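Shipment paperwork, digital attachment
Item: protein structure file
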Amino acid sequence: MKPEKQKIDYEKCPLDDFTLATIKEIKLDPVHVFKGFQGVEDKTCPGVRFIFEVDGMKFPHYSRWMKFSYGEKATLYVKFLSSLVEDAEPDMDFDLLALKGMKIKILWGEKNEFQFPETVRPQGKKCQKVSQVPVIDVEDDLHPDEEVPQHILDEQKKPSEDVPF
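Attachment content:
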């Protein structure tokens, strides 16, 4: 006896035009296993994938797992970073989490009944390469009666590499 084959219908996006979406989440798997192709061994390395909230769709949609690399030929860089980040360049210094919550347009492709983001563009301006992270002075957060921890004082005493002696 064999179980009856079940056909699962997935919520599909239209293929002929861009759909509006938001990057809802960015998942990182530090030890993702990428399956080898045609005799190539499996490779374990950090992987990343995007989770999209597509306008008009009930369920989230996902990108495939990609190697967490900003190299010029890396899928993450070519399909996402080059089109979503202002002045993007290979191997740039960029925090990927800066894209979380970004409004985007996705043109979907389909192969073997599976959909994937083929082209991704921002809905408005591109994300800035340098995220505006506020600098917090540790001493400002201390109560006036508290002492500054010794490791902070030690860091302040170290000479800067930019200052010649």
